[in-house]
Amino acid sequence: MTAPDNTPSDDPESDLTDLEFLDNPDAEKGAISSAPDQAATELDQVFQNALQTARSEEKTKTNRLSRKPPGPGLFESICWMFGVFGAHFAGIMLFIVGAFIYLMTTSNLGQNAATIQKHLKEFFENHPLEMAGVEQGIFVLIAIVAISLRLGKGVLAKINLQPFSVSTGLLLLISVLPLSMLSGEFYRVAFDAWSTFAEQIPLLKRFNELQTMEMVKQMAENSPLWALILVIAVFPAIGEEIVFRGVIGRGLLARWGLIPGILITSIMFGLVHAHPAHVIAVIPLGMFMHFAYYVTRSFWAPMLVHFLNNAFAVSMAKLVTELPDQAAKLGDETQAVHPLITVAAALFVAVVCVYLWKTRAKYVTPSGSEWTPGYISNERPPSEENVTLERKPAALGYYPGLALLYLNFLAMMGLFGLQ
């Protein structure tokens, strides 16, 4: 075994330095305390960065909260509502001009005003679907241009075309039948009350000429189903949703709050349907569509419900024309339904609303708080915002509960049917 090398160093300065270090206690303490000082410095830097981030987030939040809610306000919303009437009128006038030109080039109208009026009246009576198609098509075009000008840059982000979950889509799909039954019952009650009131003032009976379903039934007799769905379901689902949920509802919810905003928007949505009974019938439907829009954060949701509801109504109208006379009551909205059907439908829709609220979509920041632009809105956050869209799962009991309630509704339909 070799002994350790204890040979003295050849460098006297090195030895001297070692001795000085041993004799200097302050130097020893400095070396020992250097590590804690460095850790304290790093910790202070982390704290400063966190503080700066918090201040930045607070400033961003303050800026959002200080943002003025978007329009339209109540007065402008009323103007938009009357604009819907104007857009439909423009479509009808365009069809009249086109019909006149067509008759001038294909028929000998002559110069007699009565003859021209007679030919035009016959043309309108023979082409009701074409007239409705031009009217609705022009309305949709005007609505798209108007919302683009009103909302400006980023219009698609402001109305939010984000897709919703498949399960939500299926739930909205099966909700259409109960909603239609409830809407029909509202219509029946309102129509009975209106008829009684109109008997006292005969002039009010002219409103009966504005019944949409009566017009649809007339068109259904000689028109293919696909054309009826295009004109009565697709066009209104686009145009009316753009105006009422996309523009009017956006401003009223931001300024008035969730419940008042939905209610006022839905009343305006009902008013454009002209006939008082129809107005009452579609207000609850409009409220459900707007609610679906808010909880899904997707503009596709109200469009889907609107389309399915109208498609169901027009399909029933078409079916009535091909059924025996005893089945014609299926398309009659004035026919009463059994109270148990109404209760079952209302109960199912109520639980659907609770489920949609519990599972509503939210934009969430990294800190876990909900992102908003400073007011109630469905708009998609700017790309620079670090947020994610989250949807809470529902309690497992909702799924069998919804299934049982829907089966109960179908059972009531099968047992009692129409009175």
Explain what the structure shows.
The protein is mostly helical. The chain has 14 helices and two strands; from the N terminus they run H-H-H-H-H-H-H-H-H-H-H-H-H-E-E-H. It has helices at 12-23, 25-65, 74-106, 113-126, 128-151, 155-159, 166-200, 212-220, 225-256, 258-271, 276-296, 300-322, 339-358, 398-416; strands at residues 361-364, 388-391. A two-stranded antiparallel ribbon has the order 1-2. The radius of gyration is 34 Å and the shape is globular.
What keyword list fits this structure?
2% strand, single chain, 419 residues, mainly alpha, globular, 14 helices
Briefly characterize the structure.
The chain is an all-alpha fold and 419 residues long.
SS-based class: mainly alpha
Low-confidence stretches: 1-10, 12-22, 62-66
Compressed to H and E, one letter per element, the order equals HHHHHHHHHHHHHEEH
Q: Main sheet?
A: 2 strands, antiparallel
Strand content: under 5%
* Helix content class: over 70%
Query: In which order are the strands of the major sheet placed?
Result: 1-2
The strand count comes to 2
Rg (CA only): 34 Å
Question: What is the overall silhouette?
Answer: globular
Average pLDDT, rounded to a whole number, is: 83
Report the end-to-end length measured between terminal Cα atoms: 114 Å
Number of helices: 14
